[in-house]
Amino acid sequence: MSGNAYDPSEEGAKMQFKDAMSYGDYLHLDALLTQQHPLSPAHDELLFIIQHQTSELWMKLAIHEMNAARDALIAGNMSHMFKMLARVSRIFEQLNSAWDVLRTMTPADYTTFRESLGPSSGFQSHQYRLIEFILGNRNPNMMAPHAHVPEAHATLMAELARPSLYDAVIDHLYHSLDGPDAQPPTPTLDAPHAHDPAIQARWKVVYEDVATYWSLYELAEKLVDLEDYFRRWRFNHVTTVERIIGFKRGTGGTSGVQYLRRMLEVELFPELWHLRGEL
Asked: pTM of this prediction?
């Protein structure tokens, strides 16, 4: 083994970036890496900040992919939609892994900086709320925490004004099975999607004749996969919070673990889950 230090430039690697775009330039790392501002001297506050900031970045990508998937479905581009939905599932897998890092923080660690958070809480994440709205879990009461941020509030209002991703899927399901004159249920824009036996009956047709309706079957399973990962994300959130703060109230004023446990009961695509008991 040679004692000379490896020099990448000898193999053609660019080493000078005075007049060229570098890795840091492209990613704006000078701005990104200076956005962590702990409000206490506590060692673990940086972990808390970075975990939530990176989660928001992953959520931004999930929103980008879900909007594109909905547009692709409406345009009839199923292959692109399938790719995007698969990517969203993998994004939620990344979000799940983030809880593993946060769980290295003990209750004693968290109490050293919890007061610095004031009333701020993940409950107030407008991107999380937008993900729920896109997927069909729509509750206008959840708009209030975002009223002080006009841009975020307007984005959420715009989503509530259009059919959800699942509404678009249901429309595609009806027209695929019943023809161009099919009359899908009218989307409920300002309330969570409720289980509909007529929708479930159509999914049952698909699952009982997979060979004929393979594309619809694949779409259904992509949605189940997505919700599976989404549910795990919620579950890991509950267990992480219980592990760190027990049954104390959340910083944002919610009941904490009790509130999060109620969220575990939410079904995004109920027909696809209830159907399984009929097959």
From this structure: 0.90
State the DSSP H helix or E strand holding residue 111, giving kind and residue range, or none if neither. helix 107-111
| Contact between residue 105 and residue 44 where contact means Cβ atoms under 8 Å apart | yes
Contact (CB, 8 A) for 122 and 128: yes
Mean pLDDT, rounded, for 206-219? 97
Residue 22 counted as domain residue: no
> Domain range for residue 224?
41-278
**How far is the C-alpha of 126 from the C-alpha of 146, rounded, in Å?**
7
pLDDT in tens, 99-131: 889 999 998 998 999 889 888 877 789 999 999
Q: Report the C-alpha gap between 189 and 138 in whole angstroms.
A: 7
Range 66-84 burial, b when 16+ CB lie within 10 A, else e: bebbbebbeeeeeeebbeb
**Cα–Cα dist 101/41, whole Å:** 20
Q: What is the pLDDT of residues 52-71, one digit of tens each?
A: 999 999 999 999 999 999 99
Sign of the C-alpha dihedral, residues 125, 127, 133, 135? negative
- Separation of alpha carbons 258 and 197, rounded Å: 30
Cα separations in angstroms, 63 against 86, 104, 156, 212 = 13, 28, 12, 32
DSSP-assigned states of every residue in 71-82: HHHHTT-HHHHH
Domains in the chain: how many in total? 1
Tokens of 5: 């230090």
Q: Is residue 13 domain-resident?
A: no
CATH number at residue 114: 1.20.58.480
Q: What is the pLDDT of residue 93?
A: 93
Separation CA 114–CA 100 (nearest Å): 19
CA of 62: how far to CAs of 130, 160, 181, 191, 261, in Å? 10, 18, 33, 22, 23
